[in-house]
Design goal:
- By secondary structure, the chain is α+β, with helices and mostly antiparallel strands.
- It has a single domain, classed as Ubiquitin-like (UB roll) (Roll), CATH 3.10.20.30.
- The protein has two helices and five strands; from the N terminus they run βαβαβββ.
- It has a five-stranded mixed beta sheet.
- The chain starts with 9 loop residues before the first strand and ends in a 6-residue tail after the last strand.
- 20% of the residues are buried.
Length: 91
């Protein structure tokens, strides 16, 4: 996920976890610093590396950025909210 050299600019995003995912990682919010140009997939990989229990998250979970469903290749910007959405059951 590293992009650029050690001086590459970083941005901060807020990760939110719901239901089972919050239980797995032990929190419902987490502030994450990622390199400028990072994608949703980069953020997911970083969360899986840093948070205890996050290895149980799917490699490609359903994610919303700023309350809109987002693909894994979406580029993040400063202050984005990345919500990890567990599968829903019902009918």
């Amino acid at each position: 996920m590293q992009r650029g050299g050690p001086e590459a600019s970083r941005l901060s995003v807020r990760c939110r976890f719901f239901a089972r995912y919050a239980e797995m990682v032990g929190c419902d919010t987490y502030r994450l610093a990622v390199p400028s140009g990072a994608t949703v997939a980069d953020a997911v990989a970083t969360v899986r590396e840093r948070l205890r229990g996050a290895t149980g998250l799917p490699a490609d979970p359903m994610v919303a950025v700023n309350r809109e469903h987002a693909r894994s290749d979406r580029v993040l910007t400063e202050g984005d909210e990345v919500a990890f959405l567990p599968p829903l059951a019902g009918g």
